[in-house]
């Protein structure tokens, strides 16, 4: 079984959003068109409480894109984004989210961020996605969405480590690219056996 895993295709990661990724909205139409080719469609939704610890606003004297040391290690700080039930947290209005078999929310624990769809940033707390995929007999994943170097990257690496066959459609992802994070992400994904391709 081969599933399409759409990562964080939400208003706040699209132009005009709180943590806008350049061209984030351009991938929506082609992702909708791709859904019919898969036996399962799963979408993730970044879903933070208003006082989430990954928000720079939560840390006195800190600005977005600076780093802090959390109990679980270094954490990049972000502008407030994807606050639970806000418009920014909603899927892009043109995304065919009704076609998803599963919508997995992540990042809802105030003290831990979660880039990956599998494990939170402590790298231990599971989201439950692995069990869902195994229960359904899904062994292959094609990843699309936002952002290439953060949530797509962490999800792809974890999936590969868990033994799934992983393809990232780089043409259907867009990156934040904070000073070279995209190049590092691509190298790390490839070293774990993730296949990066710009073709269906
Ligand atoms: C993401 C930063 C913070 C992402 C989510 O979806 O890549 N990046 N929260
Ligand atoms: Zn987030």
How is the topology of this model organized?
Blueprint: E1 2-7, H1 28-35, E2 40-46, E3 67-70, E4 73-76, E5 102-106, H2 129-135, E6 140-146, H3 148-161, E7 165-174, H4 181-191, E8 195-197
Helix pairs in contact: 3-4
Bound molecules: pyrazine-2-carboxylic acid and zinc ion.
Pyrazine-2-carboxylic acid binds near residues 13, 46, 146 and 150.
Structure described in brief:
Helices cover 20% and strands 23% of the residues.
The proportion of residues in beta strands is: 15-25%
The major sheet is characterized as: 6 strands, parallel
Termini distance? 17 Å
Judged by helices, strands and strand pairing, the structural class is alpha/beta
Specify the number of helices: 4
Written as H for each helix and E for each strand, in order along the chain, the element string is EHEEEEHEHEHE
- What number is the mean pLDDT? 98
The helical percent reads 10-25%
Low-pLDDT runs: none
- Tell the overall outline: globular
Cofactors and ligands? pyrazine-2-carboxylic acid, zinc ion
Placed side by side, the strands forming the largest sheet appear as 5-2-1-6-7-8
Give the beta-strand count.
8
Radius of gyration: 16 Å
Could you explain the architecture of this structure?
- With 200 residues, the protein is α/β, with parallel strands linked by helices.
- Helix content is 20%, strand content 23%.
- The chain has four helices and eight strands; from the N terminus they run βαββββαβαβαβ.
- The strands form two sheets. It has a six-stranded parallel sheet with strand order 5-2-1-6-7-8, with helices on both faces. The chain has a two-stranded antiparallel ribbon with strand order 3-4.
- The longest helix is centred in the C-terminal third of the chain and has 14 residues, at 148-161.
- The relative contact order is 0.20.
- The mean pLDDT is 98.
- It binds pyrazine-2-carboxylic acid and zinc ion.
- Pyrazine-2-carboxylic acid binds at residues 8, 13, 46, 78, 115, 146-147, 150-151.
- Residues 8, 13, 46, 78, 115, 146-147, 150-151 line the site of pyrazine-2-carboxylic acid.
